[in-house]
Design brief:
There is one protein chain. With about 230 residues, the chain is mainly alpha-helical. The protein is about 55% helix and about 0% strand. The chain is built from 11 helices and no strands. The structure holds iron/sulfur cluster. Iron/sulfur cluster binds next to loops.
Length: about 230
């Protein structure tokens, strides 16, 4: 890891921290169970849509035990508007049954145990560990984090696992949880996928793709960030 890449990452981290001091998870939840359910539902769906569905869902299935006994047809109807509702219902019930059988109804607190649950990949596990349990095990790489990481020159990769590896190498563990929240907020507010608002962006003096992101141009060469 080069010093140039690390100092660039520090500058990005500091600017994001000033701009988004209160960034946090947009999925409404009160417990690790609720966050896990909401995160599974958020695949290919907006957080706002998930937040419309979860009050009814959590009222009907207040805990893992109730969800494990859910009728799949009834659950599908409740979550239909989040898309891919049959697959998500299967993941939710499968996850709840596995949590009951393997963990006595408690949401596990390790990456290995979480990623063995149906419907839970590394991104979802990172969300639960970071936001519900305060453990900086990795960096959540969703579509916003992936896009901004490339635009800001923090990675060259497309694959979330390799992007996360680059971010872990560039930022200290104490930054990992909030870094994701802040990049996601910046992606929603200014660095949108199709129309990044570079002229008004506070990162435009240090962003390697300022002004060219919308045109689809290739970013300037950046130091290799393989770790
Ligand atoms: S300068 Fe443009 S491309 Fe870079 S982070 Fe800001 S909005 Fe995104």
């Amino acid at each position: 890891m080069s010093e140039v890449a690390e100092s660039h990452a520090q500058a990005v981290d500091a600017a994001l921290a000033v701009a988004y001091p209160d960034a946090g998870c947009a999925l409404e939840h009160r417990t690790p169970y609720q966050l896990l359910v909401a995160t599974i539902l958020s695949a290919q769906c907006t957080d706002a849509r998930v937040n419309m569905v979860t009050p009814l869902l959590f009222g009907r299935y207040p805990g893992v035990a109730e969800l494990a006994r859910a009728d799949s047809g009834e659950l599908e109807e409740i979550i239909r508007s989040t898309g891919f509702f049959r697959a998500k219902a299967g993941s939710l019930i499968g996850m709840a049954r596995a949590v009951m059988e393997r963990h006595g109804g408690r949401i596990p607190e390790t990456m290995e145990e979480l990623t063995r649950l149906p419907g839970v990949g590394r991104k979802t596990a990172n969300v639960i560990l970071g936001t519900a349990f305060g453990q900086a095990t990795g960096v959540v790489v969703d579509t916003h984090v992936a896009r901004l990481s490339r635009r800001l020159g923090l990675t060259r990769h497309q694959d979330p696992v390799r992007i996360e590896r680059d971010l872990i190498g560039l930022f200290p563990p104490e930054s990992w949880i909030l870094l994701s929240h802040r990049l996601i907020q910046h992606g929603r507010r200014l660095c949108q996928a199709r129309r990044p608002r570079c002229p008004e962006c506070f990162l435009n003096q240090i962003c390697l793709k300022a002004g060219v992101a919308a045109a689809g141009a290739q970013p300037p060469q950046v130091p290799d960030q393989e770790v």
